Amino acid sequence: MPEACLVRPDREFIEEIIASGGGDLKKCMQCANCSVICELSGDLHPFPRKEMLWAQWGLKDRLVADPDVWLCHQCNDCSVHCPRGAHPGDVLAAVRQQAVRAYAFPHFLARWVNQVGMLPVTFLIPIVLITLALLARGPLEASLPFEPHRGFYAEFFPHWLLIGFYGFFTGLAFVAAVVGLARFWRAMEAADRNAGAYVVTAGIVASILAALRTIVLHDRFARCQAQASRRITHLAAFYGFLALFAVTIWATIDMYVMPPVFGIASRYPFDLLHPMKILANVGGVALVFGAWKAIADRRGGKPGTPVGSSFDSIFLWVLLGVGVTGFLVEIFRFSVGSEPGMWLRTTAYSIYFVHLVLVFQLLVFLPYSKFAHVLYRTAAIVYAEHTGRRPPARRLPARSADTLLAARSRGAIGAGRS
User: Fold this and answer.
1) Residue 29: how many CB atoms within 10 A of its CB?
2) CA distance 41 to 35
3) What's the pLDDT score for residue 394?
């Protein structure tokens, strides 16, 4: 006789899933077609059929601890082929939003950052903090043991203060992210142990290397069909951000490491033909393109188009804003003369201030926004490699779906009962 199981539905969780883009959840009739058609779903732990069942039941603890939720890339092949229009891909996207909220530290920030009504508050936080930093500039600068770097924007917000300010708050965000990821990893392991499904198949180092290869190539996006172009979008935004991050690190080294340690004179701020400036501009173009295309794709209305939510749109608009204001800041820097007028200086500094606020939103609120996907998905992929939750090694031809339906749907149904 099978063991009895007490199910405690979380009605509030179900309502949040529906409100976050999973509005068609109740249409699911558990046919398992979604798990069969998905090119990313493995045979041992197929998804998203079991996740649809758990979501209908309101099993929040089981869902937010499920690594398979993060192995889904919302290509929405399942949604296109769903006979009831239940949109499993969008339901899993809503579950990922709830998972970020569940593990975020502190919890309240995850709710604030992703609510349109709280945008004034979340923007006011960096505005106040940056203003306080500027007010403290004078006393702090007088006690510096070195001569500050000068430049057009450095006269407004000096580099030493910029690096210290963002270094401190990004460090706090890093600590918060580590806490969230540790909670997530323990929850995944506990859920599998409770289900009797925890099996280690690869070492952590090997799993990390395999996950990094997947992330660098974005190869799982290549196996999606309905939204195949999303691979280009994600690659552009991902590598655009990495390029800009690398340039930021190099600029810091150029200013504060090379001169005192190696005796090499700083070349910052870089001119337009400097390799780092070229990399920054290429990365900026890629970032703007990726963010703009992601926004456009969500408004395209094509079959399989993901349902948008504030969780998605706030992040994408902030990302686009960072890229656009960054280019405006650069244009003003190279267009002003040696003695810019008051109007030009005020306009340039105002745009720079907006840029700094958006950068704060992007980096410091990373553990709470959709940007957290880069952390939780990476952890889930590492865990999947570690425990053998690998998807099929190659794309299955479309005609094979009917052949595999019986065997694979049996696995999906069995998994849904676990």
Assistant:
1) 12
2) 6
3) 42
Contact 380, 208 (CB under 8 A): no
Predicted pLDDT at 412: 44
**306 and 403 together in one domain:** no
Look at residue 301 in the predicted model and tell me its pLDDT.
66
Element (DSSP H or E) covering residue 36: helix 33-37
Domain identity same for 193 and 97: no
Domain identity same for 116 and 67? no
User: Is position 253 within any domain?
Assistant: yes
DSSP 284: H
Question: Which residues span the domain enclosing 39?
Answer: 11-102+394-417
Residues 98 and 117 in one domain: no
* Confidence (pLDDT) at 176: 97
> Which pLDDT belongs to residue 40?
87
Position 385 in a domain: no
Cis-peptide, bond into residue 269, ω within 30° of zero: yes
Residue 330 contacts residue 283 (beta carbons within 8 Å): no
Between 88-103 and 159-194, two packed helices, what is the crossing angle to 10 degrees?
Answer: 110
In the predicted model, residues of the chain with pLDDT beneath 70 are: 1-7, 300-301, 303-304, 337-338, 390-418
Cis amide bond preceding 48, omega within 30: yes
Total domains, the chain: 2
Same domain, 251 and 400: no
Whether residue 89 contacts residue 48, with contact meaning beta carbons closer than 8 Å, is answered with yes
